Amino acid sequence: MRILKEDPLVITSLSFNINPTFTNFDGVEGRSLISFPVTTNFREDGKQLVVEGTLMVRGVSSDDKEIYSASCTGRAAFWFMEPLTEKEKAEDFVYGNFIKPVYHMLSFYLQHNILSSGLVTSFPIVEPPFRA
Predict the structure, then answer these.
(1) Fewest Cβ atoms nearer than 10 Å: which of 53, 65, 126, 131?
(2) Is residue 62 within 8 Å of 30, Cβ to Cβ?
(3) Residue 89 and residue 49: Cα distance in Å, rounded?
(4) pLDDT tens-digit map of 33-76
(5) How many whole angstroms separate alpha carbon 103 and alpha carbon 128?
(6) Strand 30-35 and strand 38-42: pairing?
(7) Interatomic CA distance for residues 93 and 76, integer angstroms
(8) Which residues 6+ apart lie within 8 Å of 39 measured at CB?
(9) Alpha-carbon span 83 to 58, nearest angstrom
(10) What's the rounded Cα separation, in Å, for the pair 58 and 17?
């Protein structure tokens, strides 16, 4: 597999919402709930792959009250010199070479957006869940 051309990740939406009913922010400890729905589309001739994903995060307090929600959506496209083989189209190959990098870029933008709010002091960039 040789990549002929790559369209860089284009961010199509970015949002951050604070729960207006949550008022006690001092010393709140919580966790982030992350989901990452992603779609991959191969062109019929196997020479193009488009990866589009949305990284969604909900910040919840230790008593499970929502503090904030945020999401970032983007897409990237890849053109190949020759059609991908069936082995290269396998999910673990596509995941490792195309989905994971898109996830990490979305995570970078989302992390910057969340941390710049001043509401959250740390936001872990974790590995995306593997699609079975």
Answers:
(1) 126
(2) yes
(3) 10
(4) 788 888 999 988 889 999 999 999 888 887 888 888 899 999 99
(5) 7
(6) unpaired
(7) 16
(8) 51, 52, 53
(9) 39
(10) 10
